[in-house]
Amino acid sequence: MNAARVAELLVKHLGCDEAQARACASGLLGTWTVPPPGEAVRDAGLREGSLRTQVVAGAGIPGARVPSVGVPAAAVARLSLPAPERSVASGNGSAAAAGTVPHRTAPCDGAVELTTARSPVELAQRLYERASSTGATAVLLAVLDMEGVLRMSGVAGPAAQAVSDWSQVPLRCVLPLARMAEADQQVWLDDEVGNRVLTWVSARSDAPGAPRPVGAGEPGTGPGAVVCVVSVIWSGPPPRAAAARGRLEALTDCAGQRLRGLAALGLPDDDVRAAWLGAVIDAIPVPAALLFPVRGPLGRVVEFTIDHCNAHATGLLGRTPEQITGSRLLDAFPGMILSGIFDAYVTVLETGVPLDRGPFPYEEPLHGGLRPAVLSVRAQRLGGGLLVSWQFHDEQARMTARVDDAERLADLGWAEWNLVTGAATWSRRMYDILGLDPSGTPLPLGALSGYVTEEDLPTVVRAVQSLSRDRGPVWFEVRTHAAGGPRHVSVNAELLRDSLGNPVALRGVVQDVSRVRRVEAALAESRREAEHRQLRMAEELQLALLPRVHTDLPGLRAAIRYQPAENCARVGGDWFEATPLPDGRVLIAIGDVLGHGLQAAAGMAQLRNALLGIAYTGADSARILDCLNLVAFHGHDESLTATAVVGHFDPRRRTLSWARAGHPPPVLVQGGRATELINDDGTTLGASLEPGYACKTLCLGPGDRVILYTDGLVERRADRAGDREDLLLSAARQGAPGTPEEHLQTLLSVLHTNPEDDTCVIVLHVGS
């Protein structure tokens, strides 16, 4: 570059007149550092428009003025330079002491090393090595787009590691400066914690005349549409010597040019948006997305765009992955502001410290209210964006609560013992069932037998033998000792085996069935009480309905015995009748209603009452049975079935006229012999509307006896029917010499009446 070109730049950028510019140009040429030719210089992007000059305010160049660099008022107010003189930030970024004259500096040592750095990290380290001798504590490099999204970064120095990357670069000062300036800027700033910062900022890439890297497209597009920032930080005062300050400014400028060259070679966001990263996000088994920040005019993050999300991505308000992709974060998840997650994401983006927040209460606005949920989030900075994942635990929490409720309501617990490692895993209810402290550890398998009652230990032994022998699960029930008393425990256990058949684990479901057993015992007791009450009612009803026993009848002496069943629930429908009729005859009847209990007793009462009503009409025995058959057939909601023998004894003629309806035949004891009276006509009452009953008439003599009985006398499950009938005839002969009462007692003693059924016996003795 010749003096004429320098003079032209001074006139254009500093407002000097042509004479002053030409006079100054020849003196300034000696202060420029001319980099060596070659590929490194071209990569660094050094051009005429990026050369640095030092401009002296005041006497050095009369009439010289300092152009505005576009720094906001708040930032300009905080600009400070080392004492004793205040320095002025020039349009090209250099600073000089007021009242001094231009001076020459030696060529910048270390420029070649800076221009050959291969990455922002390497460039930051090389710049720090050269600036640390002046007391610099950190070097921060960054490449941002015009929205403030971080694309590349590099750090060096212990202070940089402490503040973590980009956190100390004053974006609200840097970005407005880059947006409004047409030339590269270099300014001295105070950061928020009192450090001194020398910051180099590249020009706005779409400004007219702004330097752009070789190969960049139209202004504002491609890799040229970025802001490159180089900051050198001192925790104390920077060097006061003008030569040292000038050398630092030259090094910072050289590093900025190289950083711009690296940005032109390609940005990491190309990898962030690569197809392989999308495939990785899609393979994450929980909702995940890639976010990029949206910055406001001052460089602050005001939103995030959801660049890509996987198929698992869900929103609390029902958004689908297609609706989430491409939307703004706060549109898809408006509760991020209320929960503080948005600010946490910004912190991750600025500091690089990952976020991992476990389940926490989360709320989203919905129809004027707040919909609660439980959320977990993770975030990791990736290039200029964030890789985030999240998970709503509502369904998991609901399922866990349902399992807990099911275990609690059903008194269920589950357990598993690893037979290889000896480890045991229990659910919460297992501790309650065994009366143990939930804060303790599960019992080993061998210790469980100590909680089983001694009487039930054989049951456990049989279950273990069955498990070892068979492949299927086993079920058994035992009683256990617990703090609240003994418990009934139902166990379903299964033995797990490996592919070789070796047992590796035992798992089981345990249920406390004590409540069920108590309910069953209470129900059994209630049934017994109900049956006892029913027995008393049936007995009272039966005794109330049975006639008063008359032992002296016209021409007869009678011995009658009604014996109820021993089982309280089997009160039957046996009945009898022995009463004189108005016409002088004696009505003799015996019957048995099928069934037991109150229904049988009620049926017996109905038949007996009908019997008396019909007998008083003078009807014969066959006619009486015909009428009783109609009552049994039509008189109940359900048909009534019964057997009966009805007869009339005429005392004047000593004759017995009788008919039978399916009932056991009477026995006649006469002359020391006992025989059954035959009358095959007639079926059971209620079985048919055409029963075909017929009367048989028998002449009796003094001393003869007729025995009528119900089936309880001759039916026993352990004996054959023929044997019982023979025994009845034998007992009838044996008791004949005694009185009717003695005869009756002999029958009952010899035959041992059926305890499961009622028994009724009538012994009639014909008088002289």
Please explain how this structure is put together.
- The structure is a single chain.
- The protein has 768 residues and is of the alpha+beta class.
- The protein is built from 23 helices and 26 strands.
- The strands form five sheets. It has a six-stranded antiparallel sheet. Strands 2-1-5-4-3 form a five-stranded antiparallel sheet, sandwiched between helices.
- The longest helix has 32 residues, at 514-545.
- The radius of gyration is 57 Å and the shape is rod-shaped.
- 37% of the residues are buried.
Oligomeric state of the chains?
Answer: single chain
Structural class: alpha+beta
Largest sheet, order of strands side by side?
16-17-26-25-22-23
Shape: rod-shaped
Give a count of the beta strands, DSSP E runs of length 2 or more.
Answer: 26
Percent strand equals: 25-35%
Total number of helices: 23
Can I get a quick summary?
By secondary structure, this protein is an alpha+beta fold. The chain has 23 helices and 26 strands.
Topology record:
Elements: H1 3-14, H2 18-28, H3 39-44, H4 73-77, H5 111-115, H6 120-131, E1 136-145, E2 150-156, H7 158-163, H8 171-180, E3 185-190, E4 196-201, E5 226-234, H9 242-265, H10 269-272, H11 275-283, E6 288-295, E7 301-309, H12 321-324, H13 329-332, H14 335-339, H15 341-351, E8 355-366, E9 369-382, E10 385-392, H16 394-410, E11 412-418, E12 424-426, H17 428-433, H18 457-469, E13 474-480, E14 487-497, E15 503-512, H19 514-545, E16 552-553, E17 556-563, E18 572-580, E19 586-596, H20 598-615, H21 621-634, E20 642-650, E21 655-661, E22 667-670, E23 673-676, E24 696-699, E25 705-709, H22 721-734, H23 740-751, E26 759-766
Antiparallel strand pairs: 1-2, 1-5, 3-4, 4-5, 6-7, 6-10, 8-9, 9-10, 11-12, 11-15, 13-14, 14-15, 16-17, 17-26, 18-19, 19-20, 20-21, 21-24, 22-23, 22-25, 25-26
Helix pairs in contact: 1-2, 6-9, 19-20, 20-21, 22-23
